[in-house]
Design a protein that fits this description.
single chain; 37 residues; mainly alpha; 2 helices; flat
């Protein structure tokens, strides 16, 4: 899970300078709530 957390932190930090960052972050949150089965 550490790698996933680092990825999320990277996306949130990147989102501050790029509008696409927020879109990617929201997309990640939606996918995280769904079961990966």
């Amino acid at each position: 899970m550490k790698v996933l957390e680092r990825g999320i932190h990277y996306i949130t930090n990147y989102g501050k300078t790029s509008g696409m960052g927020s879109y990617a972050y929201n997309h990640l949150l939606v996918n995280r709530k769904r079961p990966w089965k």
